[in-house]
Design brief:
Strand content: 15-25%
Number of helices: 11
Helix content: 25-40%
Largest sheet: 7 strands, mixed
Number of domains: 2
Order of helices and strands: EHEEHEHEHEEHEHHEHEEHHEHEE
CATH superfamily of the largest domain: Vaccinia Virus protein VP39
Strand order of the largest sheet: 2-3-1-4-7-6-5
Number of strands: 14
CATH architecture of the largest domain: 3-Layer(aba) Sandwich
Length: 385
């Protein structure tokens, strides 16, 4: 099977989590850069990456990588790429996104326009036509510039991979599914351990945790742009990846995953989203404030995205809220707590410095992932395992 180069973008600061996921899929890792991981494989890897990856934003098929400091140079280097190897004569193609950081070519709209013209010129020559119907499958092109180096790819995913298809209702400031999954993977939590999110909102953390516990592939119930690429991807490869995902799933397991929120409407929305995801039987949702958080068992986990006061009137309430978080955590015996927040005084009001602190960009917002690590539970006797 022919080998291709793929690019998986992710949240800044979470590249190591995505790299580990790709290695677990059997991918050959290329470059690990800020906000993306490059890897190699056949078209079977393209299908499996889209269906199984929890932390990637999308999967791109890399067409080229080069340096360009002028629009003339960009045009010629895009035109020199073998676009006919990827886009058929009836393919629908456009430059869906261009980004530029610390580069001489900095206008996204101009970059998009030049790239489209260059691809058209290349395909005109190769197919010996002057006009394209563009009534076939979609081949959305993406290009990123960093320090004058351009990376050009075709988006195989279509809609971002964080759109699992289950979140019909969202809270005011929801955490994305991909970010929630990545943060869960940064903790030692496993599906047989207790997990509580006291600010569950639309339920993203508990739902992603339940899907992980049940070995449910996040992309198994959605479609992808490359499913229509009959010139590149054998339909059989998609069927095989979905069959593999279904064979691995075990949603009959027992879990102790709980989601709380002070807003009853959000709890109702979270239940509905969990139903859509097929994991509502694995999660207990309840309307209650963080001040009421208690649990009789030891060695559990709090993983949460508490409010961090994007509006001025909310900021005034943050010291009291984070004190409540600290008090609730203090009542739990031998628990660990992991919370992501942009509130810089979080540790001060929680009343304890985090054991570890990781800076993560949630979109353009700088956030902190505070990690309070409790003791490890004693090893269970082998017969129990």
């Amino acid at each position: 099977m022919e080998t291709y180069t793929f690019i998986a973008p992710c949240h800044f600061g979470l590249e190591s989590v995505l790299k580990r996921e790709l290695q677990d899929l059997g991918c050959e890792i290329g470059l690990v850069e800020d906000g993306r991981v490059t890897f190699q494989g056949g078209m079977d890897i393209l299908c499996r990456a889209n269906i199984f990856l929890r932390t990637a934003e999308r999967v791109l098929l890399q067409v080229g990588r080069f340096k360009a400091e002028s629009f003339d140079e960009l045009f010629e280097k895009i035109k020199a790429l073998p676009w006919e190897n990827y886009i058929p004569e009836d393919g629908k193609f456009w430059v869906t996104k261009a980004t530029s950081v610390k580069s001489k070519l900095f206008s996204p709209s101009d970059i998009q326009s030049i790239v489209k013209k260059a691809v058209v010129e290349r395909l005109k020559q190769q197919y010996r036509v002057s006009w394209f119907p563009e009534n076939g499958a979609a081949y959305p092109i993406r290009i990123t510039f960093l320090k004058d180096e351009a990376v050009v790819g075709i988006d195989t995913s279509g809609e971002s991979l964080h759109r699992r298809g289950y979140r019909k209702l969202a809270s005011k400031a929801p955490i994305t599914e991909t970010l929630a999954a990545a943060l869960l993977m940064l903790t030692p939590w496993k599906g047989d351990r207790i997990l509580v999110d006291p600010f569950c909102g639309s339920g993203t953390f508990p739902i992603e945790a339940a899907m992980m516990a049940a070995h449910m592939a996040p992309g198994v119930n959605r479609s992808f742009a490359a499913e229509e690429w009959k010139n590149l991807v054998d339909r059989r490869l998609w069927y095989e990846a979905v069959t593999e995902a279904n064979d691995l799933m075990d949603d009959g397991i027992e879990t102790d995953i709980q989601g709380y929120d002070i807003d009853p409407d959000m709890v109702k929305a979270a239940r509905e989203n969990a139903r859509e995801a097929g994991v509502d039987h694995l999660i207990h949702f309840q309307a209650r404030p963080v001040s009421a958080l208690r649990h009789p068992k030891k060695y559990g986990f709090i993983v949460t995205n508490p409010p961090y006061g994007e509006r001025l009137e909310e900021k005034e309430n943050l010291p009291a809220l984070y004190r409540e978080i600290g008090e609730a955590y203090g009542r739990l015996d031998s628990w660990s707590m992991y919370l992501i927040t942009a509130y810089e005084n979080a540790e001060r009001y929680i009343g304890r410095k985090a054991d570890r602190n990781r800076k993560i960009y949630n979109g353009m917002m700088k956030t902190y992932f505070y990690q309070y690590q409790g003791p490890k539970p004693p090893r269970r006797p082998k017969q129990e395992e």
